[in-house]
Amino acid sequence: MKTNRRLPSLRSLRAFQVAGRHLSFKLAAEELNITASAVSHQVKNLEDHLGLELFVRKTRALEFTAAGRKYFEFLDGMFARLESETHQLWAEFGRKMIRLCVPPFFSSEILLPKLDALQALMPETDIRISTPPSGMKDHPAEADLSILLGKNDWPNLVTHPLFAGHLVVAAAPTLMKGFDASSYASLNGQTLIVHENRPEGWSNWARALGIPQPQAGKILRFDSMSSVMQAVAGGLGFAIVYWPLSDKWFRSGAIARVFKTEPIASEHFYLAHRPEERDRPEIAKIVEWITREFQHDG
Asked: 241-278, pLDDT tens digit by residue?
């Protein structure tokens, strides 16, 4: 007997695709601008519709089932193609638009101050900038260009290196009074500030130096780099920051480098796009501008 099944709703498919990209209902909710429970509900509806489990739900994370991984890979490609075709339609019949996805701190510190120059360069092109709160590790399906932080392990993307993200310990100058900066062990017992999207910052810093991870007396957690910088400048504790992205804060004297060691190159910032975007003139123009303005050895 034939079973006539309707296709799943686009809303549930999109919720699953974004949740699968982040492996988190919370981060998917932030991207989709809905609640985490709404994302979970949409995914559950999709699982009920298919009669299949797509995720293994753990306490603080999601894992794909075999069926879920296969379906995600198909849907991720499908949404990327849909976004690309929609943009091509817009480019052919409407006003040109570039969708640029940038980490929030990158945007506020170095992109926005130069945005007038980019607009003057491309007066006939609309520029849409999104700043998702999650760490930029992957190129979003809905973006034409993105700024990614990592080790250039994106084989399916065209990437242009911009600068290294050096890990530097920073604190307010007032907090440095009486602090023994000759020993990394002086951090033990201090208040350490953690960026929730980069919780591995302190362990990565310690590992690169070959020293034990400092044992915090207290930990302050923030969900944005701007909040981290404000907390550091306010003398609330010590934090790992990326240099030269935070260079303006150091030059202003609001924060100071704690140790006199050379900064540690952890990851690099890259400008990325899909290979099929390579031949679009407006993409080529903005790639040339961003690499000229921001590419340096750091």
From this structure: 988 889 999 999 999 999 987 677 778 999 999 988 88
Question: Cβ distance 127 to 289 under 8 Å?
Answer: no
What is the C-alpha to C-alpha distance for residues 43 and 72, in angstroms, rounded to an integer? 12
Distance of CA 143 to the CA centre of its chain: 13
> What is the 3-state secondary structure of 186-225?
HHCCCEEEEECCCCCHHHHHHHHHCCCCCCCCEEEEECCH
Q: How far is residue 105 CA from its own chain's centroid?
A: 10
R_g of the chain computed on alpha carbons: 22
Q: What is the pLDDT of residues 8-35, one digit of tens each?
A: 999 999 999 999 999 999 888 888 888 9
β-partners of residue 241 are 168
Distances in Å between the alpha carbon of 109 and those of 68, 103, 226? 38, 10, 9
Residues counted in the chain: 298
From the centroid of its chain, how far is CA 250? 23
